[in-house]
Amino acid sequence: MPVSPSAVRASLADAVPDVYWTDRPDLRPAARPPLTGHGHRADLVVVGGGFTGLWAAVQAKEDDPSCDVVLVERGRLGIAASGRNGGFVSPSLTHGLAQGVACWPDEVETLERLGAENMAGLAAAVERYGIDCDLHVPGEMTLALDERQVGTVREAYALHRAHGVPVELLSGEEARARVDSPSYLAGMHDPTVGLVDPARLVWGLAAAAERLGVRVHEDTAVTSLDADGDGVRVATEWGSVHGRRVVVGTGAFRGVLKRLALYTLPVYDHVLMTEPLTAAQLAAVGWEGREGLTDAGNQFHYYRRTLDDRVLFGGYDANYHFPGRIDPRLEQSASHDLLAEHFLGIFPQLEGVRFTHRWAGVIDTTSRFTPVFGTALGGRLAYAVGYTGLGVASTRFGARVALDLVHGHDTEATRLGMVRRKPLPFPPEPLRGVGVRLTRASLAAEDRTGRRNLWLRAMDAVGIGFDS
To answer: Mean per-residue pLDDT for 377-393?
Structure first.
């Protein structure tokens, strides 16, 4: 449905350029002190205070309460991807079942089982540590917005049912009965997907880690990592710490481990958050089940109703800035105008709603859309990065893998092909930027025509996972 530019401008007029989740001073904890001075020692140093690093610290203490763990974060906890995402908690470890089948058909059943176990472990930890993060599991609806996407939804339904996922296929009428939009032509409901307040999960994990004895330091940028005797010297802006082992979980921020630049690509994703909907607006849209929503295009939106009745709406554009630039000045862009236009087109009955927040975050994508794992410095250091926007739950699994790798444990997880074999590296610039632009244009063309062009078919043939 066409939306006027004036309606878009009005909806964004009051939106502050800040992240809703962390823009709540009454909830945000006080800053932890930076690590200063030299001579510090620890059994394990964790670099990165997002989900991967926090889960690594917590699980290390669960494994061995006597393990001395130090965690360092370059900024404030939750300031990067872990506190900026939509809060969708998916059990998938492979960026969706279709990607798992395409990449590891012989292991997909194991990966699905491990993903379900990881999801259950996350929920159990949230309960065990009393983390107040609004975790709930209303499921996710994948919706068709055009006739081509109807076929995509039906194919996804058949694939999920074939692998034992209890999904439900919805007609357009059935989908609109759950969430009312004239755009919905069909849908699939997956009951296994949850939602969470991501910033409160970050803050709750940090508090749990500290109660377990982890020393957490914010505003502590790592400047170098060097083999030192039986461990690693982790140098920071204001000091250093010697760790017998190190786990790195820095997402799109590659830091001083330069090899990560080969496998991860920083892509900006944009998000809007509405004001709380009124009773009349809620009645007009329905959505009583509070399901997470997405659509079936390559360029897709994700959206959800929060427990205080706001609507988060994000996705669609995925912006890469040459040559892998990450800069706060890139967070505000015309992508927000496009999102507002799409939102009002999907929900014309919400005309007049205002957005209160507009922000962006950097996704660490890999060429196959799934994480990359590895070791460095003679096995003293392990890393897990590259969750490609689906890491709220899978970071817990990634942290488990990194801990197993750095301690030399031979486990079911470390034997997985996804862990043992790295994705194809991205080419150097300027070829990297050209490839990203060509891929984006090709995916948009497939959304319009339903046909994968020669470029996308070539990517398929070499195992690059540009399928969403």
So the answer is: 97
Distance from the Cα of residue 174 to its chain's centroid: 29
Contact assessment for residue 401 and residue 60, using Cβ atoms and an 8 Å cutoff: no
- Determine the angle formed by the axes of helices 5-12 and 335-346, rounding to 10 degrees: 110
The yes-or-no verdict on residue 124 having pLDDT over 50 is yes
Decide: helix, strand or coil at residue 247: strand
pLDDT of 1: 65
Contact assessment for residue 365 and residue 229, using Cβ atoms and an 8 Å cutoff:
no
Residue 463: what pLDDT? 66
User: Residue 75's CB: how many other CB atoms inside 10 A?
Assistant: 14
DSSP 342-353: HHHHH-GGGTT-
Is-contact 232 117, C-beta < 8 A? no
Tokens of 366: 């890999």
Question: To which H or E segment does residue 40 belong?
Answer: strand 37-47
Cβ(375)–Cβ(419) under 8 Å? no
| Residue position matching structure tokens 């970071």 | 395
In one-letter notation, the amino acid at residue 430 is P
User: Is the pTM here over 0.85, yes or no?
Assistant: yes
Tens digit of pLDDT for each residue in 422-455? 999 999 999 898 888 888 888 888 888 888 888 8
Joined tokens for residue 268: 């900006």
Tokens of 229: 């005797």
Gap between the Cα atoms of 364 and 426, Å rounded = 13
Q: Which residues pair with 45 in a beta bridge?
A: 70, 246
Q: How far is the C-alpha of 57 from the C-alpha of 62, rounded, in Å?
A: 9
109, 115 contact by CB (below 8 A): no
- The angle that helices 108-128 and 198-212 make with each other, rounded to 10 degrees, is 70
- d(CA 416, CA 94) in angstroms, rounded, equals 12
Going by C-alpha positions, the residue among 180, 150, 390, 351 that lies closest to residue 269 is: 390
Residue 335 backbone dihedrals phi, psi, to 5 degrees: -60, -30
